[in-house]
Specification:
Blueprint: H1 2-21, H2 24-43, H3 54-72, H4 78-98, H5 104-113, H6 115-132, H7 135-138
Helix pairs in contact: 1-2, 1-6, 2-3, 2-6, 3-4, 4-5, 4-6
């Protein structure tokens, strides 16, 4: 339960930083992470991780596409980092699909912990957008 509380705390801090200091793309990435997290919690409140979590996999695919669209809208490099981290989450699901002998704990940890670098990069991007005056990211 503490892990969920810590994650949502970091997520809400990320959204707050993006709202306060970020441009539209940083806010979009933060909102994408927020919506995906809430949807994952709603559709699969207590995932077992013994088989591929299809609902979470589909949400992760939508997030990947969203991050990819954000990457196409700017010349900055941070969206490629979050897209890459999200792609690692997708590969975790695909590995579980192909190799059912992967244990539930490593599968769940990969799916969960990959979110933290994404959130940290979004916070960094939001904090640096205002300082840089990134015109294209604001358009």
């Amino acid at each position: 339960m503490w892990a969920v509380a810590i994650y949502y705390s970091v997520l809400l801090i990320t959204v707050a930083v993006a709202m306060r200091r970020g441009g539209p793309l940083e806010r979009g990435a933060a909102y994408t992470a927020l919506i995906a997290s809430v949807c994952s919690t709603l559709v699969s409140p207590v995932p077992e991780w013994t088989n591929i979590e299809i609902n979470i996999f589909i949400i992760d695919l939508v997030v990947l596409i969203s991050f990819w669209i954000i990457a196409f809208k700017t010349e900055r490099f941070w969206p490629y980092w979050i897209t890459g981290w999200q792609l690692i989450a997708i590969f975790g699901h695909l590995q579980k699909l192909m190799f059912s002998e992967i244990l539930a704990r490593p599968y769940s940890l990969l799916s969960i912990y990959v979110s933290y670098p994404i959130l940290l990069v979004i916070m960094y991007a939001a904090g640096s957008t205002e300082q840089r005056g990134d015109v294209r990211a604001a358009a």
